[in-house]
Amino acid sequence: MRLLAALVLAGITAWAQNLQPVVIRGANIVTVSGPIIAKGTLILRDGLIEAVGTNIPIPPDAWIVEGEGLTIYPGLIDAASNWGMPPNLAPGPGRGGQNVAPPARGPEDRPATTSWVKAADELRVADPRFERVRAAGFTSAVVFPMRGIFCGQGSVVNLAGDKPAAMVLAPSAGQFLTMSPSGNGFPAALMGTIAYIRQIYLDARYYSALKDAYARDPRSMRRPDYDRALEGVLESKRILLPASRVVEIDRMLRFAAELGQPAILYGMQEGFRATELLKNVKPNTSVLVSLKWPERPRDANPADVDSYRDLELRDRAPSTPAALGKAGIPFAFYSDGLDQPRDLQKAVNKAIAAGLSRQDAVRALTLTPAEIYGVADRIGSIEKGKIANLVVTRGELFEDTTKVEMVFIDGRRYFTAPEADTSASRAPLTRENER
Amino acid sequence: MRARFFTAALTCAMALRAETIVIRNATILTVSNGTLKGSILVRDGKIADLGDQIKIPEGARIVDASGQYVMPGIIDCHSHIAIEGNVNEPSVSVSSMVDVRDVIDPEDISIYRALAGGVTTANILHGSANAVGGQTVVLKMRWGKPAREMIFEGALPGLKLALGENPKRAGSPSAGVATAARYPATRMGIEDTIRQAFLEAKAYKAKWDDYNARSARGESVLAPRKDLKLEPLKEVLEGKRFVHVHCYRADEILMLLRLADEYGFKIRTLQHALEGYKVAKEIAAHGAGVSTFSDWWSYKVEAFDAIPYNAAILQRKGVLVSINSDDAELMRRLNTEAAKAMKYGGLSETEALALVTLNPAKQLGIEDRVGSIERGKDADLVIYDKHPLSNYAKVQKVFIDGQIYFDRNEESKNWNAKQAQKQNLLQKERAN
Predict the structure, then answer these.
(1) Does A30 touch chain B (CB under 8 A)?
(2) What ipTM describes this predicted complex?
(3) How confident is the model at residue A433 (pLDDT cuts 50, 70, 90)?
(4) Nearest residue in A to B99, CA atom
């Protein structure tokens, strides 16, 4: 066994990137889109999956990895993430913090709005979290700017690459919204935030109508002012809305329908109570379950006794994925601030312990998020022609004893360092890390 | 398991809705038509019949109310419960774009507590921080139902205005409010702010009227921009939305009545109006209702001239008066708040009860549905063990639309089981 590992290592050193096809043979292949292939063969070439199955002829120029005892899954996808995002995007009007802007006086000041910002344009290749989460098996994420009300547009990205441009799979994945008040003038209450969002969509519709009319005949018509906030909203194909409690899920389902927007509700902590509500939602509405389960705050006063509702929420939140699974409601997981492999694995395990099948857990981190964002033709499962994003484990994913051996991103192999090192490591992602 | 429980609960609720109920041997305080001894027949959520000759239909559920009192569900004309987040949008002086309807929290425990105090309907208002506040909504206390199903079907929504200390406080440099000082900081400024808002709304309305007229003529014109701040003000000008005004002093009340007359709209209710008794005639002439406190006074400068005779004096001068709570706790005992108007001002029992039932129903324009025990009205009923105007009266059962939403027996029966469940959860969490 040790000999094999040594051989593999030696092989990688000699492996010329992207020129030589890679073959993994004799491994268990969890395709997600189809049945599990026992002792299967996988051929990767030019960053894509060239072939998958059994009895596949091996190209003579291929570099062969013996997959005995290994399991291959599609690379995991974080369905809403801030990995790779700078901690602070430039503050716009009414953004709080060190803002210089005067307080917003109303919707016309477009408070807490950076709808035109695209995650793909802000991506930091050197984010140390990339290496960490690869060790948990993540190869892609849908990353979003997450500050403000209209925070900006997310992008589907790979979690490794030489330069940001090469990491982007889909630049515009949707507009991320929060319901947080702006912190600087209007809106300062939840009802103000909702009114603001409603007004923005009314304005966007009006703006489109004006622009159309102007495009038809610009003569004898005052040209409409360019509005980047509305442009950003109009070019977003879907919106992400926060919804944790069942009251919020109900409210946001209605709100999305009112706005006429395809929507993704994120949070879902109380989703275990909302299956009836979610069963009949339109096909253009999806749900993301936060992997950050509610916990008693560490600094809580020991003398305080929590309400029944809080206790129940903390007890039952991890049963949300199982409940959604049983009700046939597709969902994806998202990291919600977690970025340590152990935390991520523990969080998924909690859902499994609360009744989620391992298979559904894998799907919620692979094919379902890919489907939600319309990139299932590229990633999310192991199929011929898809991008070679894979995670290779010894043991089943999410088992405590399982080790993520390596991940492939765009067909390139990345080894995962032991966790103790990664948590301390601030090493930027460079070729050395690829060994 | 949980899902099955919910389905069971749902079927149960549906069965309840269709259930025919007879409340018998009760003292019935109809409010609109005196007091009588007898039975109330509830069918399809409505009061089907009442009197001492009611035949019990087959299969009807019988609620024996021997020695007990039934009154119409209490209506609170001024409440801020069941609002998620801040009850004010405190950043701007004209916040008419915000709507309480958007932030209803049907799981606010205050709803259940209000229910346990006999309240079946409440006018949920935006706070009083802004000269022009937010849009308001009337809710039935249908505890356990989602937000949309709590909304009183067909009740006209309102718009909150506010005068005096609260809306000018945010403008004061010494306010200590986190937001920057804002206009207005004086009572003059408040009048100006409201006037400006309605001026803008008038222009906005004219733009839309013009557009509607032209597109009706078949002209191809672009619709004007829809402005959520001005829409509710336009609706006020069109009589499609009630105005509820937070106010205290006589001078500001007169100011607003004149402003409303000038712009051609009606003030539906003056809320608080603790100096209302000073200008009762003017209020009556405008046709505004007053929703006031029983005997709360002196908690702020503009409440110094309050007298507990306010409700009675206004009523005698021909103003439609109600007593409200403005508070989740006080909301649970509005029956005794109403009783105070008998001691101060000498109102009759029925007049006192009307202060928290029929009168607020009229003020909210829902008196054809609720506010008294009459044939055809919603079966929103409260059973008390003693006369509801007594300090010793306790709510036993509360019906909304003929469905039981609070039952003291059930509540105390479940208490121990709930406590045990909570202890289990606590222990489980500590063990982990």
Answers:
(1) no
(2) 0.94
(3) very low
(4) A191
